[in-house]
Amino acid sequence: MTQRTVFFVSDGTGITAETFGNSILAQFPFKPRHIRRPFIDSTEKALQVAQEINETGVREGQRPIAFATLVNAEVLEVFKRHCQARVLDMISSFIAPLEDEFGVTSNHRVGRFSNVAQSREYHDRIEAINFALAHDDGQSARHLAEADVILLGVSRSGKTPTSLYLAMQHGIKAANYPLIPEDFERRKLPTALVPLKRKCFGLTIDPERLASIRNERRPGSKYAELLNCRYEVNEAEAMMKREGIAWLSSTHKSIEEIATTILSDIRPDRLIY
Amino acid sequence: MTQRTVFFVSDGTGITAETFGNSILAQFPFKPRHIRRPFIDSTEKALQVAQEINETGVREGQRPIAFATLVNAEVLEVFKRHCQARVLDMISSFIAPLEDEFGVTSNHRVGRFSNVAQSREYHDRIEAINFALAHDDGQSARHLAEADVILLGVSRSGKTPTSLYLAMQHGIKAANYPLIPEDFERRKLPTALVPLKRKCFGLTIDPERLASIRNERRPGSKYAELLNCRYEVNEAEAMMKREGIAWLSSTHKSIEEIATTILSDIRPDRLIY
């Protein structure tokens, strides 16, 4: 099939619309062009983006798709009336059954993130990001006890991006701590972690994959050698087994999947609200 | 109304389901309890989670809500048949009109993130996170020219979380660079930024808010004093005006909103695909 364009039209950032739309589109065997049109929060802007979509359709000779997350009924109405795309209305489809279920009408508030910057939850997310940065790679043992989770593993096993993701998406305070050759020689957990063992979660990785990642950083180094990677990974896994620390392999997992698995295992109280 | 529980049931991480569900639920004037059940990718697991949901409903005397993103038709069928919650099926609702529109059937592939860890796009996201960390707070001018965007602003104006978000969500290489009193005395942009001005985007912040954020970090310091914050913010804004650098205020915006605005302004090529 020829080029087809998908628009994500939102009164907020459009990130939710696009993320969700992507998982729907992933069910189809081709990758259409994406265009995001955020902050469409007035009838004027709705009209303008409808025209842009219509022009795209004419130019491409194919009707575009438009995922819409427009909460305001009037804005949505104007958009739908003027837009000749196949419009998938992501809000109304679910609002109606919920209004029925809850027995109340919704408030049609625009933008998921409106005023979010002032909220406690947002403040906690930003604090969690700062915490992850301050406690990246075992940088500081200060306040380590405040961590919700401490990731450990060999260098380049995926600890840093996972910690940042846990902070950013979930507001989880995630520290991370490297397991280094000295730890393997001592055959002991880093001292700072001993009293915090129940918060620890290990990441491991396939040695071949690790060698390839390390070689991108420091080509030809002993650090990146496959033999050395095998040694470190074996020792790290043996240590986690010995210490009874849960772990998973990051080799075939995205940071989203790793984070979700960790949360299912650790189940921090703050996530049950 | 009494306690009501909302379940997010997904064959993947459930993050998409929960993010989208949250923006729907934000339209209602109460906050139900959330429970996420990820990786529900077999009929056995579907049955198990349906039972858990039913028990919750009995215990609470209210029918739960279940947002479901289950791609596999059989798993979805078993879940729907056994679950007594109000099930909001987020996939099928949109797949059917798209199959019709595209004139093909979808492949019902489970999990948006399956094998994503091996993809080019994922690799770029991880690289972008590493780049953001290496170029946080003006740490390094090496490879600065590789940045897609360089955020600048006074200390604690929101540069670091925004850079990390741009990297993690969009795979954008975002460096960030502080504007410090020395720059204001010189009345010049930091030298490293001069040749890269067209990639620069400024963040500013309300001085009162800045003082309050800085006071959390270094209570009672000159750095955190309102008078000093006013001076720095004024000078930073004057400099951005003088240099013709676009900027926005982070005071009332979430990192998602800031990132979206920056992307609309900078429009990096790599996002048009």
TrEMBL record, chains A, B:
Give me the reactions it catalyses: [pyruvate, water dikinase] + ADP = [pyruvate, water dikinase]-phosphate + AMP + H(+); [pyruvate, water dikinase]-phosphate + phosphate + H(+) = [pyruvate, water dikinase] + diphosphate
A Pfam family annotated for this chain is: Kinase-PPPase
* Top-level taxonomic group: Bacteria
Residues annotated for ADP binding in this entry: G153, V154, S155, R156, S157, G158, K159, T160
Keywords in alphabetical order, please.
Answer: Kinase, Nucleotide-binding, Pyruvate, Serine/threonine-protein kinase, Transferase
EC numbers listed for it are 2.7.11.33, 2.7.4.28
Q: Which GO terms describe its molecular function?
A: transferase activity
**InterPro entries for the chain:** Kinase-pyrophosphorylase, PSRP
Q: Where are the transmembrane segments?
A: none
Q: Does the keyword Kinase apply?
A: yes
* Known function: Bifunctional serine/threonine kinase and phosphorylase involved in the regulation of the phosphoenolpyruvate synthase (PEPS) by catalyzing its phosphorylation/dephosphorylation.
Q: Which family does it belong to?
A: Belongs to the pyruvate, phosphate/water dikinase regulatory protein family. PSRP subfamily.
Name this protein carries in UniProt? Putative phosphoenolpyruvate synthase regulatory protein
